[in-house]
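Hi R.,

As promised, here are both runs. First protein below:
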Amino acid sequence: MRGLGKELRTGLIAVLAMTLVLGLAYPLVVTGISQVLFPGAANGSKVSFDGRVVGSRLIGQEFKGKAFFHSRPSATGYSGDATFFANVGPNSKEGREEVRENLAAYLKLNKPFDRGLTKADVPVDAVTNSASGVDPQISQANARIQAHRVAAVRGLPLDEVEALIDGVVEGRGLGVFGEPGVNVLELNVALEEAAPLR
């Protein structure tokens, strides 16, 4: 019985010590280091415009209207607190129908501003969901197609809008992973700074 009390006391001390070290000290140290070395990333990679936070460069969001670049489709409604993908395979009837609907909507939105646009020209990311549902990037090809619409609606030269795209292209992850992409939020912020909607 006396041995049990000693083991219980030792166990409680170990739990308390580990809670203090791993539950309090370690997170505080890591948070402090990240705040000093990577303050932007540690605070959510927030993007500000006109003195207010408009989003995070890490989480895609929905943009409506012809005057803005649009993100890729999302199964989550761009909800950062519930990321998931559509979970339909390439042979799924539901998946094929969703892609057809997205393709029709994309062509309806962009073809009036780029008469030569065909189904074959539409990049995959314009009509399919991302794996997380909140990817902040679109392909350069997708952005360049949308540039025709945005330039026409805003009354800007196409080459000026394409220069904005080039200014926010992000390279491959660590130089080797994935493809270069365009951060839609940062592109729309750059667009608003260059030619605000009236």
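And here is the second one, sequence first, then its structure tokens:
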Amino acid sequence: MGLKKIAANILQWSFTRYLSLIDRTVRIIWDEENIYGDSQIFGFWHEDSFFMNVVLEKLSYKTTPVDVIVTADTRGNYIENMVRRCGGSALRVPDGYKAFATLKKIVQDSYEKTHSVAVALDGPLGPRHEPKKLAFYLSEHAEEEFVGISLLYSSCLRLTRRWDKYVIPLPFTTVAVAVKNYGIVKKNAVPDLPVDADMNIQGMCTSESVSESA
């Protein structure tokens, strides 16, 4: 086994172990404006990708199984491993125009199986907090409701040199999770989406910045 593969395995093991620790110690405050049951399109900000594994695992008990759209390049390997650890399935989608055929299949599958789909709205490479049309394309063409999810952390590390300012929650953190149903959304009529959960814990939120290369 090559050194790169060994390093990748160690990194994946570290991610999943820390995710397990967070899952056991974090307290979640839910603010939900959504009726679960049918297939839906879940959208979240890329910076929240780490803790969204925990959120989607807990939502899967309320709704249909959740498939997470993940980039097809090597960056997606780590994400897919964490998605699987939380009981989900990853849909590997290429970047750019190569994604079209894969997306058509996802839409077709939505008619044949009862699965929800989750996607980082500003992923895979930003700009930060500028939603791309993927989630709304799926909502429009699969005729499924779009559900926005925004998070707020009482304590976290934030990787400030990454384009998304990626968030790693600390153990024993409180995380506010706001879930809002926007109905079927067309790709040319994207609603205004909150950056953070707007809840009572907002005044508690503190974070530490960590320099990290993109």
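A quick note on the second one: The radius of gyration is 17 Å. Let me know what you think.

Best,
J.
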